[in-house]
Amino acid sequence: MKPYRTTPFKEKIIKEQIEQYLTERIIEPSESEWSSSCFLVSKPGTNEFRLVTDARYINSQTKSWPFPMRTLRSILNKLGDAKFLSKLDLVKGYHQMEIEESSRPYTAFSAAGKQYQFIKMPFGLKCAPAAFQFMMTKIFSDVIGKFVFIYLDDILIYSRTYQEHLHHIKVVAERLRKAKLTCRTDKCEFGKTEVKYLGYILTSEGIKMNSKKIKAIQEYPAPKNRKALKTFLGMASWLREFIPNLSTKAEPLTNLTRQNVKWCWTDNEQNAFEKIKRDISSGRILSYPNFRQRFFLATDASDCGVGGMLFQQYGGRKHLVAFCSATLNKTQRNRSAMERELLAILYATSYFREYLDGVPFTLLTDNKSLTWMYRLTEDNKKLARWAIRLTIWKYLPNINSITLEEITLDRVRQEQHADCEVQLILQNQGSNKLTSGYKIQDGILYRDVSNNPKVSEWRVVIPLSLRHFMLHELHDVPQQAHLGIEKMYDNMRKRVWWKGMLKDVDTYVKSCEKCQLFKVERRKPVGLMKSSTPSKPWHSVYLDLIYPLPRSQNGFTGILVVVDSFSEYTEIIPLRNGTSREIINRLRKDVLSRYGCMEFLTADNGSCFISNEFQEFCAKNKIILKYISPYHAQANMTERYNQTLEAKIRMFLDGNHTKWDEHLHDFALAFRSTINDTTGFSPAKLFFGRELRLPLDNVLQITGEKSFKSFHEYVKNKSEQANLAHQTATKNIIRNQLKQQQHYNRSRRPGELKHKNLVLVRTHPISNAAKKFSKKLAPLFEGPYRIWNKLSDITYEIGTVDGRFMGRQNISNLKKFIPRVPLDV
């Protein structure tokens, strides 16, 4: 390709950049048979230029690389809990990525009478974005979506706490250092609550429009031609998720861009133009989606467009997630109003699929469009397909679209006459075949619900379109206060009737989200006891922390309790603080140096045990680290020892709470030398093969040991005694476990959850007088979450519905969530 002609001014700039690229080893001289032209493009907002090559021909010969790129919305979905944000921008990102030597000749270009080829990735190559994104994804693969997002050379770090954020920044910086990638410090922002990213402003509260884009639209003059109008509409479209019903508002403007439409700018177009500018200037903030809360989808349709609004309601206010809108084509505009309403539902649910797919949500629309949809016949194939598409969604028609003030007997009569089930009964009446037990009065159908043939109890027959309202009015309102199934059904039976009403009441109450979150279950708790029998000493060890305690006279503030699960041999170790480092040091000096490494180590979910430092310590020593489920302390056998130890400490304090560490070693001796009810032996006997001597034993000259003729005989006897003790202890442990299981399971019931089940998790709130919060008034459960994996009959891994891992839970803290679905038709 021939070099482009250029001015002396730009030729000088090209030569300067060539020299700079040669110095920085970005390019090198070339003798390639390939050659592209080069030219300069100005950098936005500056007086600087960037040298680029015209790679159109080489791109036409290059295979595509469809490596996935993150969308902005997929990034925003993960930022709900983020309070601190940092943004990193790489220095000439592409120029930090080397090209394989055999591929360099294809990048050759001519400039200043010479030929060069790129050593580093140039701008303009077809696969450059995919290759660069692949490299960055490979570097950060295990942390993307956890606290990092990468879009080419823009790195976003997000965290919930400041300390966590500092750690995340350190991790990212270390990865960049190892990959030999550098950032532009003048374009990096650290520890902010608000950063500019991909054309928007991300804050700890949500996403805002970029002030530069708002200003550009505010100052945009009224268009004089189609080209200027299309530019304005393109700018507005970039912010379409901030603007309600943009397509409908922009219809007068969009119409002017169509072919064969004469350009004529009237007051109608000017008003639409100004209205869009006002909407964009509103400063509206979009909230990050909270996948632990229910979504609400409001839809609407006009003569020329459809639109939707996705929002959530929690914390006493509405959280707007996004708007969507689309223009209707000529065929769609000719459809009826209810058909267009259905089109709006189909469009909005499809647009917001990544939020709504597989989760219950509330649909706010004209209920008539839904009622009409359910009565479609097979004659209208297209509309029937629409109905099938909508049935995949777990939506709940919005009962609030009907208010108590709107319900009159005239409204009931109208809805009855639009209901196919009622119509069938009315048609029989017209042919003098009215079904027994029904009557028509003032055009309204009634049903006799009396069981006494001598007495009639007439109730209004409720059509499908009003049933959700009736269920809501006799369950959700304060005057009914979420009655149970039987009481609610009794109340409804006194007032209304429809076929299958008891079943609908049962379904409605069981799927009521507030009932599931707030009500105490009157059944036996779920989850039977499951026990594993330890096989030998120091095979499985339990760990726990009593912390914090008042600083003792010796400078200690906590206690580390270590218990062997087989012998129940105990180590009680005072700690100067509750950090992972302190615990690791004491384990290394006081435990591993004496007894060696255990095979399994079980701890709770305290921050000191789940830290990377503690996990690395266990991995280095080939110890398998296990965690108990949160809020299931009975799974950690140290809990019982903690309670006993705390009682012993209290007995010897003598009112001085700084003396709690004086007798810890004495208490440890007491634990180790006392016969255990479960095993039938003292922990020392099972652990060492001998009893521990007490001071009194020396006074009374109690030996407890017989003499042997030889050392060999002594060793043999000790081995036999140890084997016998271990066998007996194992039998005693099994017997005791069975007894405990039988006692425990009498007050429990079995339960099983399956993969992908939706569940609620029991809450454990703490009252806070300063914040005027009482745990007695808080929800008993939160969610819903989704079952990810079944670890055992009683332990499950769960996550949010959007795919964020939330850890493991015992089944006793879980309750199956029943989402609400539309009534059967």
Automatic annotation (TrEMBL):
The record's PROSITE patterns line, in alphabetical order, gives: INTEGRASE, RT_POL
What is this enzyme's class at the first EC digit? transferase
**Which Gene Ontology molecular-function terms are recorded?**
endonuclease activity; RNA-directed DNA polymerase activity
- Give every Integrase catalytic domain span: 533-691
The family database entries (CDD domains) matched by this protein are listed as:
RNase_HI_RT_Ty3, RT_LTR
Q: Which InterPro entries match?
A: Integrase_cat-core, Integrase_H2C2, Retrovirus_Pol_polyprotein, RT_dom, RT_RNaseH_2
- Where in this chain does the record put each Reverse transcriptase domain? 22-202
Q: Which UniProt keywords apply?
A: Endonuclease, Hydrolase, Multifunctional enzyme, Nuclease, Nucleotidyltransferase, RNA-directed DNA polymerase, Transferase
Return the Pfam families for the record: Integrase_H2C2, RT_RNaseH_2, rve, RVT_1
Q: What is its EC number?
A: 2.7.7.49
Name any Gene Ontology BP term: DNA integration
Q: Does the keyword Isomerase apply?
A: no
Q: Which PANTHER family match?
A: PROTEIN CBG26694, PROTEIN NYNRIN-LIKE
Name-wise, this protein is: RNA-directed DNA polymerase
What's the source species for this entry? Allacma fusca
